[in-house]
Design goal:
With 214 residues, the chain is an alpha/beta fold. It has a single domain, classed as 3-Layer(aba) Sandwich (Rossmann fold), CATH 3.40.50.300. The protein is 27% helix and 29% strand. Helix 5 links the parallel strand 6 and strand 7. Helix 2 crosses helix 3 and helix 3 packs across helix 4.
Length: 214
């Protein structure tokens, strides 16, 4: 799969978030995106997912513009900003409910996703009792459980213990060959262990490539 972003701009009323963004994302690579709050990285990722429409420009998935046809891009799963689940359901029940939408994975695959993010021992615990880190883990599990072709994670490691972060990042690296993985963070240092192939920074309404990824 190839995602082409062409001359992408976004405004909210008179507030220009970013303009003339041109990027290409390809299967087989991990991409890092950095930028402080308000620089537009979360807005950009939401446009990739079809949650926002661009003010101008286009996003093409294998040369198809899903947004122009009021469709969500296929095979894209994301965790952007604060995760949200049903508070009175358990970790497992929340994922099971989500999986019922497409009904394409088994219970074992749900349990495996919980295992990958180190939530297997809390699968029967209610979401309302979760810490911030546990909520973030569940969000990541919801992204990976159906084995999508495009994985988008925005500040997904906030509050997660270091051991789990390393485990999740190592798992993402094993997926790289057959996926487009996009991970956003405030600081590029947070992405070091992912060995990203390309890194971009949102700043002053522009996107620039960071040549030194270390």
């Amino acid at each position: 799969m190839i995602i082409n972003i062409n001359k992408l701009s976004k405004k909210f009323k008179d507030n220009l978030i970013f303009e003339n963004v041109n990027l290409t994302f390809k299967t087989g690579k991990i991409y890092g995106i950095v930028g402080q709050n308000g620089t537009g990285k979360s807005v950009f990722l939401k446009i990739l997912c079809g949650f926002y429409y661009p003010t101008s420009g286009e996003v093409l998935y294998d040369n198809k513009n899903y947004l122009s046809n009021n469709l969500f891009p296929p095979e894209v799963r994301s965790s952007i900003e604060k995760p949200s689940f049903f508070p009175e359901l358990t970790a497992y029940e929340n994922l099971k409910l989500l999986s019922n939408i497409q009904n394409k994975i088994t219970d074992n695959e749900i349990l495996n996703a919980l295992k990958i993010v180190n939530l297997e021992n809390n699968k029967r615990k209610k979401y309302s009792e979760f810490s911030l880190g546990m909520k973030q883990k569940l969000a990541i599990a919801s992204v990976i459980m159906e084995n999508p072709k495009v994985i988008i994670l925005d500040e997904a490691f906030n509050g997660i213990d270091e051991t789990s972060v390393i485990k999740i990042q190592e798992y993402l690296k094993t997926l790289k060959k057959n996926k487009i993985i996009i991970v956003a963070s405030h600081h590029k240092e947070d992405l070091t262990n992912l060995n990203v192939d390309e890194m971009y920074k949102f700043e002053n309404r522009k996107v620039v490539k960071i040549e030194n990824k270390k």
